[in-house]
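Message: Study each token:
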Amino acid sequence: MNQAQRDPGGSADGSGAGTVERNLAYYLERHPAEAPALITADGVVTHGDLRSAISRWRSALVEAGVGPGDRVAVLTGNNPDFVFVHIAAMGLGAISVPLNCDSPSAELLPQLESVDPAVVHVGPEGERVWAGIAAPFADRRLAPPAANEGDGNGSFGPDPGVVAVSGSDPALLIFTSGTAGPSKAAILTHDNLVSSLQSVLSLPLDLVSVPESFLAVIPLFHVFGVHMVVHLALITGGSVILDEYGNAQHMLELIRTHRPTVVAGPPALWQRMAAQGGQATDFGSVKLAVSGAAALLPKLAVQVDDQLGLVLHDGYGLTESSAVAASTLGVDDPPLGSVGLLMPGVEARIVDTDGSECLTGDPGELWLRGPMISPGYWGEPGRHASRVEDGWLLTGDVAVVDENGYLAIVGRRKDLIIVSGFNVYPAEVEAALLTHPGVAQVGVVGEPLDATGEAVVAFVVPEPGVTLDDSELWSHCGERLARYKVPHRFVIAEQLPLGPTGKLRRNQLLAQP
């Protein structure tokens, strides 16, 4: 599969010429002043208010000595200040570095050390973890600007405005999830970000003629939240309903109150909203429902359709692909379990272990190429060389493509379990177990076994009130899987180790008590 399955839309040309128009921030500040931009429990921030606030924050950054190429760490929650500081930094040609306020100090401190920020903005949600790491960076805490007092810049000097950048200049550093080891900061350039937004806007969705209202409940330190929600909403002149990711009942109340037209969230949130009694009447305003940041199970997509009356669109992407590389958006009736078609402008290959192209329907490692693909990782040129070859991103994900170009992800190359010489992909075993009505969640890993080299182990979380036993699960798997794929043992668990967006931390399963 060497060509994108959809016609590519226009994208940045990747040349090095520096212009204001290459700066992503340029496109985020050009909408009617009276139109709503950010909606919170405290009120509405219009696009005019947004421009004024960003101007004040740019002035504060300049006062702190921030210039092009400097890193600006953002340690706060889903609130307007995150948006203000983030866009202000990019507008100056600096590099925004969103951080997870819920990270332990032992994880956050190495991240700060690796990017060496010029300043750190610490919001209320970041105070706790900041207290444990502040010492080495105490003199870098960013002083916030005063509220508008007439000159638009509080106590700071003039605002230089959005500056010219080259399309290859970094705009954003996003730390990868670290599910398979230490997290690293993927570089996303201005061209990467603009190209991926153009790719989405070239789909038959019409997000422009009528400004949309996006509900942002994905953490903004995640590429899906900051880019595919905040950037996409603001670049089209729409609005973002900002709230912290979490309580499903609260999310339902936000939807009933604010009536968003676009709701995007991880599968765990959709599952919880359905479990909390969400109904189709709650989602009458929603024109577009999107699942992202973790794998969407087919049974959940069916449940959301049946109970909430929504077609839940899925997709596939990585931090390194600027959030989305394939999607069911703009696709009629995609196969259940598929992540859709490649986005416009994205090329893909399915590659066997020997580097040859796989046949249609055969699994292999997914390689991606396009203007939205990250050039590598911050400060790790040796690491990125093993992930990008001749412009191709080696994703590490194992995928298959059918004769119509629909893509399905079947596992991670590193997660492959080899049983008596046969390949077992955990995702296939997990999919079989999830067809059992009493199974709520499952995670599959391999463990050493003398007789076969490795054995399949399944960690299973039952549905509430359900009791499962090994013989029942063995029988269920035996009817659906080849013998060597059936788990050697089952572990009934109360919960699985999950990341902040619901992604399974597979490397932690065997460490569970």
